[in-house]
Write a structure and sequence with these properties.
The chain is globular. It is an all-alpha fold. The protein is built from four helices and no strands. The longest helix has 14 residues.
């Protein structure tokens, strides 16, 4: 009986997708904005800060990543901006 249980557990573990349980939300969704906020924290820790997902928040995120003001950045209201930030957050 123990052998079958071990085999079953190994088969389940082998068939799990990489990173199962730690899925990263799709960029530009409300869940993704929360994910980025959790990684970079735009507020002061006392509940003060920009509204998550707002243009002001996006400016703070750019600042935290060291890219605010750089030429060639995608528009903050674009999918390209989210893709850039997503890649940078994952590279940290």
């Amino acid at each position: 009986m123990k052998t079958w249980l071990i085999i079953l557990l190994v088969l389940v573990a082998v068939n799990l997708p990489a990173g199962a349980g730690s899925e990263v939300p799709i960029p530009c969704t409300a869940e993704w904005y929360q994910f980025v906020e959790h990684q970079l924290v735009s507020g002061d820790g006392q509940g003060h800060g920009p509204d998550i997902g707002s243009d002001e928040w996006k400016s703070v995120i750019e600042f935290k990543l060291g890219i605010r003001g750089q030429s060639g950045l995608p528009a903050r209201d674009s999918e390209d901006w989210c893709q850039l930030i997503d890649a940078m957050v994952h590279d940290q």
